[in-house]
C-alpha cells in the first residue's frame, strides 16, 4: 500500500466514531496483527534482548520491580518478565489497546522459547513453564491480566506515564519498546523526569526505539529515511492518531535521558551501511542540518541509563 494512502486512511479512522475498532480490524486483516506468530517472534526477541541488557547493567530480573510505558495490543515484555520471576510489573498505555485473547495467545507462544528465557533470566525452565501454563489457563478462562499473573502485572489504561502516581524510589527498571518514536519530544522529557522520581537510586531506564519511517514497512518504494525529506509543516499532513512519528534521531533520545540526569551505560546506535546508502538517495530537508550524516542514518537504538545520585 502506498504510504500516503495508508496515512490518509488512518487519519480518517482517527476522526470518525468507532475508528479505533475499525483500525484494530484492519490491523488483524491486513496490518501488523495479520501474521500474529511472526510479530510475536519479533517481540519475544526484543524482550529477550532487553533482558540481556538489563542483566548486563547488573540488574537481576528475579525480585525486581518494573514499569513499562506503552503496553500495546498484548503484553509480551511484561509476560516475559513475569515468567522470569519479576516481583512486580506496572504497564500503562495512553489508550486502552490490550486484548486479552491476544494476551493468552502471546503467553502460549512464549512456551516455545522457555529455554531461551531461562538462559536470559537465570530462572529454572521448569519453574518458568509451570508459571506460564497456569497463566495461559487463567487467561483462557477469562481472568484479567492482574488475576492471571497473581497480582504481579498491573495494567492501567488510559493512563499517563509522566504522572504515574507511584511512590518515590519504588521501581528498579523503567522501560519501553518501540514507543518513544511515537511520543512528542516534550512529553519524552516529562517521562524521563517521572522515571527518575519513581526509580530507586541505582535504578535504570531501558528504551528500545525504532526511529525509522514506519510507512516503509507497508510501502517498499520508500526507505526508512523517507520522512527526512519533509519539513515539520509538510510532515504534519501524514501524522495521525494511529501513527504519529516524531522523527527524532537516536542521539536525541540519549541526550534527553542525559539531560534528565541519567548516565548512559549502554548505547547500541550505529549507522548501518545500508542506511548510509539509502541516505545518499534522500534529499534531506534543511531543518535536519544540525545532525551529522551518521546521526541521520541511524534508525534504531537501545540504551540503558542509570539513576545516579550526585549528593544533592
Please describe what this structure looks like:
The chain has 312 residues and is α/β, with parallel strands linked by helices. Helix content is 42%, strand content 15%. The chain folds into two domains: 36-67 and 74-155, no CATH class; 160-211 and 248-312, 3-Layer(aba) Sandwich (Rossmann fold), CATH 3.40.50. It has helices spanning 3-13, 19-30, 36-56, 76-83, 100-110, 114-121, 125-140, 145-148, 185-198, 232-235, 250-259, 273-279, 293-297; strands at residues 65-69, 88-92, 153-156, 171-177, 199-210, 262-267, 300-307. α3 (36-56) packs across α4 (76-83), α3 runs parallel beside α6 and α5 (100-110) packs antiparallel against α7 (125-140). It is globular and about 55 Å long. The termini are far apart.
List keywords for this structure.
single chain; alpha/beta; Rossmann fold; 2 domains; seven-stranded mixed β-sheet; 13 helices; 42% helix
Mean pLDDT: 95
State the domain count: 2
Query: Tell me, what is the CATH class of the largest domain?
Result: Alpha Beta
CATH superfamily of the largest domain: Vaccinia Virus protein VP39
C-alpha geometry = globular
CATH architecture of the largest domain: 3-Layer(aba) Sandwich
Q: Outline of this structure?
A:
With 312 residues, this protein is α/β, with parallel strands linked by helices. The chain has helices spanning 3-13, 19-30, 36-56, 76-83, 100-110, 114-121, 125-140, 145-148, 185-198, 232-235, 250-259, 273-279, 293-297; strands spanning 65-69, 88-92, 153-156, 171-177, 199-210, 262-267, 300-307. The N and C termini lie far apart (54 Å).
